[in-house]
Amino acid sequence: MKFKFTQFGYIDKGEVELADLTILCGKNNVGKTYISYATYGFFKKLQRLAEFHIEKHQMDELEENGAIQIDLLGLSERIQSCFKSASDNFTNGLEGFFNAPDDYFQNTKIEFVYDDFKPDFSSLFKKTINFGKHGILRFDKAENTDKLDIALQTSGGAQIPLGILSDIIAEQVATCLFSGQLPLPFVITSERTGIALFYKELDISKNAIFEHLSDNDKVNPIELLNSMRSRYAEPIKDNIDVIRDYENVSKRKSFLKEDKEKYQGVFDVLQELLGGAFKSIDKQVFFQPKKERGREKIVVPVYIASSSTKSIFLFDYYVNCLAEKNGLLIIDEPELNLHPDNQRIMARFLARLVNSGIKIIVTTHSDYLIRELNNCIMFSNEIKNKHELMKKQGFIEQDILKPEQISAYNIGSGHAITRVNVDKFGINMTIFDELIADSNQAADDIYYRIGE
Questions:
Q1: Strand 276-281 vs strand 359-363: parallel, antiparallel, or unpaired?
Q2: Confidence of residue 228 (pLDDT cuts 50, 70, 90)
Q3: Which residues pair with 150 in a beta bridge?
Q4: Fewest CB within a 10 Å sphere: which of 45, 97, 122, 178?
Q5: pLDDT tens, 32-89?
Q6: Taking the CB of residue 64, how many other CB atoms lie within 10 A of it?
Q7: Are 274 and 312 in contact (CB under 8 A)?
Q8: Is 14 exposed, middle or buried (0-12, 13-18, 19+ CB in 10 A)?
Q9: pTM surpassing 0.85?
Q10: Taking the mean position of all CA atoms in its chain, how far away is CA 346?
Q11: Which range, of 18-27, 125-134, 357-366, averages the lowest pLDDT?
Q12: Which residues contact 417 (CB under 8 A, 6 or more apart)?
């Protein structure tokens, strides 16, 4: 499962193959964020982009008889062509996705490749979609079968346009075919600290409507709709939306929280990073630091919490409320605002999420993060007195990563994406080693000439 990129911002050409943990490194402004956001957007929109068109005679039958049966096995033969059309459709919509000027990506091509994809028909699939009070569309697939039953019920002589029905059915067919095989994405952007700080002020649509109404004697509906468009790339907008809805979403339980005893290691290392808990009070997000002996318990609004607390907010939110099985977590600079100690803890947090079944993509500038991941990898080897050494260094079994779980890339030289070797000693990220060596050499040169 990989993405191929051509003329994508700084990148002339290259590809990224996804592993359990995919790492993107490189200097500033070389396209790491572009790649991570594009990966998020493609998986987020795939069900709508794939274009599993339903035959007209089947739609006519559904309208006439109220029920049809879809042969999923037959449709699965079209999956590769659907991946191609989804890639083309996503590429054509990049300006909107990134909120970029028209033709900004006019020479870009993004291609999703998954040659050995095979649908899994073992799972149950049920879905109900309501059309107000006048219509219900039901999807039902039993375990270990490749037949999807679709039933439509309407009342009061209501008619639902066939075009709308066809689009909804195509999207649900894609969801059924891809379920369990392709990841469910969530993104944590590098803008997360600003969003956590200003989330109450970022109600863009409300502000845009107010401005439009106050500035115009007559309301132009087209201009009003245009004014409601987000000013941000879609991943940033999605982060704003999910934080804005914290009061409601915080009542959910992720699959990790549902089985907290099994995944206790994830929550333990998250608490090491955070040192407290978030809570919703009167529709605002507050942070309660862990109480210290002899000191008063305090609760502070998140907007006056430390920058590191704001940076970790979405990680806590995801682990407790949003994480789904077969998830893909995409993180732009997980080390943001963290002390080197916490950057190392972040590495083990990522390892434990990976070993809980969540795929992860990160962009990073952190040597501390990479070095601690290398420790996680080296512990996968046969080591003398291994458990004693792990205990001494504060590692548990969930921290161990195997080299084959990781793919790593350096972006920059020659406007290309270069795959980095990962072996039993870790990730060979020489971009950091060379910089550290240069800095050390400069320090030596200066030190030995002082007082000459």
A1: unpaired
A2: very low
A3: 68, 139
A4: 122
A5: 999 999 999 999 999 999 888 888 888 889 888 889 999 999 888 889 999 999 999 9
A6: 9
A7: yes
A8: buried
A9: yes
A10: 17
A11: 125-134
A12: 5, 11, 13, 14, 15, 16, 35, 409, 410, 411
So what's the pLDDT on residue 224?
46
Contact 400, 374 (CB under 8 A): no
3-state secondary structure of 423: strand
Residue whose structure tokens are 């990563």 = 401
Q: Where are the beta strands (DSSP E) in 58-114?
A: 67-71, 109-113
* CA dihedral angle for residue 426, residue 431, residue 437, residue 443, rounded to 10 degrees: -130
3-class SS of residue 30? coil
**Residues above pLDDT 70, as percent of the chain:** 91
Tokens of 241: 């939306």
DSSP assignment of 232-244 = S-HHHHHHHHHHH
pLDDT in tens, 371-407: 999 999 999 999 999 999 999 999 999 999 999 999 9
DSSP symbols for 158-215: ----HHHHHHHHHHHHHHHHHTTTS-EEEEE-TTHHHHHHHGGG--HHHHHHHHHHHH
Per DSSP, the residues of 133-160 read TSEEEEEEE-TT--EEEEEEEE-TT---
pLDDT at 199 exceeding the cut of 50: yes
What's the token pair of residue 97?
Answer: 């996705």
Residue type, 175: T
Position 227 confidence tier, pLDDT thresholds 50, 70, 90: very low
CB 90 within 8 A of CB 41: yes
| Structure tokens belonging to residue 63 | 């309208």
* Nearest CA-CA partner of 408 in 14, 22, 4: 22
Instruction: Report the distance separating Cα 408 and Cα 417, nearest Å.
Output: 10
Which pair of tokens denotes residue 232?
A: 């941000």
